[in-house]
Amino acid sequence: MTWSFAVGRLLGSELRVHVTFFLLLAWVGFAAYSDGGWPAAIDNIIFVLALFACVVAHEFGHALMARRYGIRTPDITLLPIGGLARLERMPEKPMQEVAVALAGPAVNVVIWGILVLLGAGMQVETLAQIDSTRIDLLSRLAYVNLFLAVFNLIPAFPMDGGRVFRALLCLKMDRVKATRAAAFAGQAVAVGFGFLGLSTGNPILVLIAVFVFIAANAESQDVAMRSVARRVLARDAMITEFHALTPQDTLATAAQAVIQTTQHEFPVLGEDGQLLGFVTRNRLFAALAGDHPRSEPATSVMEEQIPRVALTSGLEAVLDGLHGGAPAVAVCTKTGQMVGYITRENIGELMVIRGR
Q1: What pLDDT is attached to residue 89?
Q2: What is the pLDDT of residues 100-114, one digit of tens each?
Q3: HEC secondary structure over 91-108
Q4: How many Cα atoms occupy the beta-carbon half-sphere of 83 within 13 Å?
């Protein structure tokens, strides 16, 4: 998601657009222009924009339902293959997860009903000509919304139907096993999508297959990790031997620290041991490649928004902090002094050591 940028806020969530979304618009416009000139290109671009407005509404269906259970949605990102609402966490009560999952398709059904009332046609032959400018915009949008509702209800993770499937499995088995079963179903469907996309020459279907396969595996790993995290405290997983920088250190000093250690992130500590931020290797390299003077303070590339947890905090709180995109989570004493930090890498190592 590093290639996405914010376009505003809506209903408490930041709305972001991935740069590849514009590649989709360019591809749709060029393909339509080749067939019917500028009128066709403009019509198809308007259709895609209207379609993605419906996708945004779908994602806000999830977000607003999740809010009922005290779960915030920091942002919603538009991708070429659809939308992605990033919930702070998924509800772990099965029926709550069912409600959140079904809220998205329900929005599409409502939009479909409104479009039909507004005069959208529902002839069967329209479905085969969904990309044709000869079919009116309302009819095309009506069919697409109905398709989105049905497609998302396929019981394959991470689609909405897969989340419903996982929630129902949770009524009979633990969440880790239920997620693993739903993820396996999702990956099986993804293989089918990929084969169909390759055989028909449909790149969008192949892209969806890749996304579904990777997302299903990632969700399964995340749930397994959180299952272990509930039994582990921050002090059991933190890195305690590390090289720290001072506010007076320069980019040259930080670069030397990269060479002399295996760290990817360096905490910047004040004289009293208080954490000021982290200088990451990626930010440092970007600064050096951008011709920043090596005598420039390392704090100029420091990331200041670092989550902090107590020694006795559960590891699940650390995962929530890392989920927001921070390079690390600082473990601090009651007086605020940093005694260690936790990264995604050492959590992964902990999972391997514990055999998960």
Answers
A1: 77
A2: 999 999 999 999 989
A3: CCCHHHHHHHHHHHHHHH
A4: 27
Q: Is the pTM of this model over 0.85?
A: no
With beta carbons less than 8 A apart as the criterion, state whether 304 and 327 touch.
Answer: no
Q: What does the alpha-carbon distance between residue 10 and residue 60 come to, in Å, rounded to a whole number?
A: 9
Q: What torsion do the CA atoms of 226, 212, 87, 62 make, to the nearest 10 degrees?
A: -130
Name residue 355's amino acid.
G
Question: Do the beta carbons of residue 303 and residue 277 sit within 8 Å?
Answer: yes
pLDDT at residue 121 in the model: 67
For residue 18, give every residue at least 6 positions away whose Cβ sits within 8 Å of its Cβ, in sequence order, or none: 1, 3, 4, 77, 78, 79, 80
pLDDT at 295: 86
| pLDDT value of position 100 | 92
Cα distance between residue 324 and residue 256, in whole Å: 29
Q: Sign of torsion, CA 104 194 184 211? A: negative
127, 119 Cβ separation under 8 angstroms: no
Q: Per-residue DSSP letters for 269-281?
A: E-TTSBEEEEEEH
CB atoms within 10 A of CB 211: 18
pLDDT in tens, 151-206: 888 887 778 888 898 889 888 888 888 888 888 888 888 898 888 888 887 777 78
Cβ(310)–Cβ(334) below 8 Å: yes
Residues of the chain short of pLDDT 50, as ranges, are 128
> How confident is the model at residue 132, as a pLDDT?
53
Contact 212, 190 (CB under 8 A): yes
Q: Which two tokens stand for residue 211?
A: 């996304």
Q: DSSP string spanning 237-258?
A: H-B-S---B-TT-BHHHHHHHH
In the numeric block, which tokens belong to residue 243? 């090289």
Pair 51, 141: CB distance under 8 Å: yes
- pLDDT at residue 129 in the model: 52
